[in-house]
Amino acid sequence: MRPLFHPSRHMGIYPKGRQPRPSINDPTVRPLRMSVLKAATLNLIILQILFLSLLCYLFGSLYQETTHVHNINVLYVDYDGGAIGEAVREAYTQLQGPGFPNLIDRSQRDYPTPNDLEGTICDIKYWAAFYTSSNASDRFTAALAGGSLASSYNRSDVLTMVWNEARYPSVSDSVISDPLRELSEVARIAFTDRGGKQTIQALNTSNPAAISVLSNPWILTSVDIQPTTQGSRLIYNTLVIILILIQEFFYLGCINGLYLQFRLYTAVSPHRIVVVRIIISAVYTFFGSLCVTGAIWAFRYGWHVNGSQFMLNWMMPWLFAHLNFLTLDVFSIWVPPPYVPMALITWIVLNVTSILLPFELSPAFFQVGYIFPAHSVFQVLMDIWSGGCNPQLNYALPVLFSWEILSLALSSIGVYRRAHFAAIKKEADDKAMQERIAAAVAVQQEAQLARKELNPDAGTVNNEDEGRAGLQRRGTLSTLGETEEMVEIIHRELSRPKSQRRESRDNQGPCFDLPFTQ
Predict the structure, then answer these.
(1) What is the DSSP letter of 67?
(2) Mean pLDDT for the chain?
(3) Staple 207 to which of 110, 134, 146, 472, CB 3.0 to 4.6 Å?
(4) What is the pTM of this model?
């Protein structure tokens, strides 16, 4: 039984592709085979080294994250000065370690009221604050006696934590909220153990409210400056940044392709190209950042942000996207073409790594991320989202504008560079065209001479000179006319944009210039 997809049944499909080819062991193919294998191996090695290095850099920034939690500083103020405050200190002694935030005990004189703590957190002097309310221990003791004091006892006015969830929302729960809740529970156990017999003796066992106070002395109160609980918060510092960078890279490829296709570098002055490219990139990134911000706002369920924050959020991705458009353009100008895709993926990984975690949770080496624009723009965005409670504009904005100005300067110089080499290439192409025309004319003249030798002489002896002169004039006119027509056809064909020429269906799929080709 013949197979379903036997070649003889499908000879009508791409017949040229089924024509016989030399064997792989053919002497003419063997050198090509070795060159291909060598080039493929070298490119495989360099790409694997690149991605291995990027993976090591990425995972290195996350290495032993839990052992760096002690770098997260939490302010503690005891406004009570009683047994509850001592229980909190005892609980911290039990929990203290590399995987627990660093609780810094400060005097009430430094922060007279709880409102001062919120201002301190907003100024990012600490990641969070934890405090015991004034007279909390006395109110607890009085409630044990029963009566109205027990029934009106406020469990939420004993221990309070103040934090800003909008500051690295993807990790703030695990490194701030959860540990402080654990501290509260351990402190409750320590407080009960410390009370012992005195607590039992003071308890009014006939009063259910008093017994309830003893069994559950407090509920930790959370003062979240900007609650950020929506699911999309997990990708604000990862996929959103990656998509912005990829978005600029693709449009940059479109723009560069159009300039080459229409030969604008030899048709338009470079300074006009610079201005037009800036305008085009600004408009593109303007609408691109609007789409990004619109998507964030559309899926912000439960996130309390206003119109002013929307506008500010729109402006920051615009600046970030535009400077990255220029930076990637610099890569495409000054980096050899085979290495441009490698530069793109490296740029993406370096930027994203700088904002995956707070630097407090990464090894000290990765503070090099301060220089990357993604880190700066994310700091500004967190400041916008939390209403000014991440004041790092003093360094973030200078970093962003430094990248913008530097990339703009190098990109503008690159336009002149491209125009320079485009002019050189045009001169070489024109010279090659003239040589082809001259060769074609020479071949045509030789053919005409050969035809003359084969034709018999025309006319009489008396008008021989006149006939020879007429023949020479007709030959000259014919040669000039055909030459001019040939020049016009060749020039017209070479001058047309590529989009107007006959296109081939020969599509080999995406391909890149290779670092090694042999």
Answers:
(1) G
(2) 86
(3) 146
(4) 0.84
